[in-house]
Amino acid sequence: MARTILPFGPQHPVLPEPLHLKLTIENETVVEALPTLGYVHRGLEKLCEIRDFNQMIQIVERVCGICSCLHALCYCEGVEQIMGVEVPRRAKYLRTIWGELHRMHSHLLWLGLFADAFGFESLFMQFWRIRERIMDIMEATCGNRVVVSVNVIGGVRRDLSPEQCQWIEEQLAISEKELKQLSDTILSDYTVKKRTVGVGVLTKEQAYQLGAAGPTLRGSGWAQDVRQTGYAAFGELGFEPIVEYGCDSYARSAVRFRETLQSIDLVRLAIARMPAGETAADVAGAMEDDTPKPVSAGERRDIMQAYNRDKRHRFVTAPPPNLDLPAGHVAAKVKGKPDGEAVTRVEQPRGELLYYIKGNGSKNMERVRIRTPTFANIPPLLAMLPGCELADVPVIVLSIDPCISCTER
Amino acid sequence: MFGNMINKGRIKSPWVVHFDCGSCNGCDIEVLACLTPIYDIERFGIINVGNPKHADVLLVTGTVNQRNKHVLKNIYDQMPGPKAVIAIGACGCTGGVFREAYNVVGGVDKVIPVDVYVPGCPARPEAIIDGVVAALEKVKTLLGMTA
Amino acid sequence: MLETLPLSLDAVRDVAKECFDDGWRLVTMSANQIDDAHFDVIYHYDKDLTMKHYRLTVPKETVVPSISPVYFAALLVENEIRDQFGICFSDIVLDFGGALYLEEEVRAMPFCKVSVAQKQS
Amino acid sequence: MFNMTKNVVTNLLTKSSTRLYPIAVRGHFEGFRGTLVCNVDECIFCRSCMIKCPSQCITVDNKAGTWACDAMACVYCGVCVDVCPTSCLSMTKEHRPVATEHQTIFLQGVPKKKKKDEAAAE
Amino acid sequence: MIAKIIIAILALVLAPIAGALISGVDRRVTAWLQSRYGPPILQPLYDVFKLLGKEPMVTNTWQALCAYVYVVGAALSVVLLFTGSDLLLIFFVLTVGAVFLVMGALASPSPYSQVGGQRELLQMLAYEPLLILVFAAIAMVTGSFKVSAVFELKHPMLYDIPLMFIVLGYALTIKLRKSPFDISACHHAHQELVRGVYTEYSGPYLAMIEIAHWYEVILVLGLCALFWSTSVVGMVVLVALTYLAEIIVDNVTARLTWRWMLRSAVGVGVVLTIVNMLWLYAQ
Q1: Mean pLDDT score, E247-257
Q2: pLDDT of amino acid A288
């Protein structure tokens, strides 16, 4: 067979997003892969010059609809760092909860798409069915399914009532049960393993040198997760990263699957430990706060044991439960203008997200630079593709969880 | 009689092709969520075919930018008639928050004619279903069918 | 605030090599225009979740040596900076020639405030 | 090999989890940020919403007393509702219906006269 | 003779209708297995009528011809089956049709279509030896390649050659484009080749291919029915169970690569055939 050039994308059913790969194939084996970017480039970093620094929160949330909450979190932490604001502890916990819910919905989405990439449609459907539960939690607590808009400079816009917390726990218990039923399939089914094990190998050294981030890095045996630095409330939750040593697509999917379960635990832990108090600080001076204690192993176990309950796990068309909304939230009053530079990092579902923010004392930021995890994961992808079979291309491309709208902004 | 059957088929089987035209993924995942068990738009005979040559309805999410406007035009031209275009989300309708960014052309209607606008940021799956239903209503009136 | 280490133009690649050998990971680079004729390029390195930042200040139209032969991962970000600020890098592994994101009609280095100001006047 | 079998057979034997929208409408949760509505009689045309809107889709003219919103460009973030001093802006639970053309909400109210003008009128 | 012509005409008319209904049920059951509500049973008919009403768009006229030959081939093989003709002839006609489908796909410049065509050829390479083995086994039991000879048997063929039924099931999975062997094209678009061999066919020609697929469904199910030729109820039950098993397998497996398909198809086919033949001789 002669060499064929196969345009992979920009409109392709495997990828919901327009990534264009020019694949040179020979006998269904990929010889070379060249990316073309720019189909989603909007230039929104430039918008910081015409929108004020508060409006930028809504704009950076729309860098990527899947991990919007974490973009806003990272941006807000940066501005807070510049302006010297101490966020109330309750707000930190709420940020953690919504951040982890985002990670869960993103991972479930990815697991579904990944199943779809190797032609396992019913698995795709099941993962997305579980994901709808998380979307419901998001809608009930934040007011929107995807772009939640909860983070503001100085805290969060919404609070959780005790009734909502209890309902979230119930929903999570059901999701966990459903998810564990699927673990057999995604982690040990013969046909699934046939398609993922040994596909898209990225060795430990390669992963580090090519600057991989997130599950791609952790799937190659590096225990590196920005949550270890303890931003938001992670410092108090006793977080430990999940690592797999397989270095292939299977290891990356296993990392994501286990992280989803871990996120459920983290949300429970955060709800159980969430202190009472304000949800937003006025941005002018620093708050005084008692030093928090990290979670102990015993406490963690006690909290976890409370969740072995059995619940019906079917959706009904009945109206959504009428949950008490928290009584009136206090929006932060922002006075002053950011002046200075900051670099902040958070762990997005896809990996490490970096914001470089520079303010110049006016209401507009001078520069907002966003380095997203997929941007870092494209060089490893280019290293993985040559030599693989055409049938494995979707699996490999998806195994880094590409988010092109993040990459190009 | 045969013509009637064809028209009925047109209403009952709108195959969609989805093109992400520079959206933030929010609307895309809601389009995909429509295919999944909770919303299941296959009830209406809708399949996401992924090939413009087979499709009847083009779902466009996101703002049009300088590079993908050619792709969008190309996909639209590849679709055999009769066809409908649905712009999804604030970005697809007008450009949304990004309409002042330097690489953004604006809404989908700057490049191809749009039949239905689905507002929302992101548009809910219910709204997307409404959008497809509205597009079918439009097709019905075009075909001279009475509901 | 942000603590940065100074970096000179000649040392760019040497420092990169040194960091590479020491096991630092290149996170990314950020460019920023500081005044009409000067740009900041900040190199962010990471090792075990601690970061260090090198700040390189260059006048306009300087050709910066590319570090992509050392860190392959730098190629995308260097192309991006070339797109947006017009700072050229020598010997990028895969050079998109200023067309990574932008089509012909908008190839005006959008982040250069000078060029924007010129367009408006 | 066929680890999924249990799951699919369970699905076959139980009711499907599909919500039959639009035949059966589930409704949205309390607090959902749906359609933006403006009670123009209460509006004092202070322009806070216009200034704060991240999408810059609201236009307020305090001389003519008009409040307009480009409904298609609105991103439903709820910032305007938060900043409105008179609570004349609110969001309903229902999502905005689809349209076949661009929609702009245009509301004409009575512009608030300044105290000085009122005194002069008397 | 007249009876045969009537049967032929009935088969020609009823087979696509029955095939469409079976596809509709297939889609509905698949939806149920995935916890969805599913499309109406008549959905395949709606699809085809809509496609017939679309603007024809072909890259070259050769492709249109190929679509026609594919339909004629599929229809003719069904007619031959129902008139009790020679199994080898049916096989030959079916193959000619399938080859024309691939030629049409290869005639277009689209790389997806090209790769899809190549894979379709590989699939044929996998299922055709299996079909031949099955036919040979049938001939060994009945002593003739005639379909009508099967109906003269006293007890169902399934007793004699149960393993060959599994081999036929293998070929069936490939022919019905079900997972794990939906590698060249499938009814869901989510895959690496968009829609593989179907990519370049559109509008009325795609409708044509869809109709040909219905004929093929009837043909392969008809072959299954031969294994319980003694009673109509037995046939229906056997076919229904086989089809249900196919749908379940479709939903519990991932798509595998063509290398695996070729290796396993030939391996399984040969091993099962040998075991079955030995057992047949031992009796």
Answers
A1: 82
A2: 41
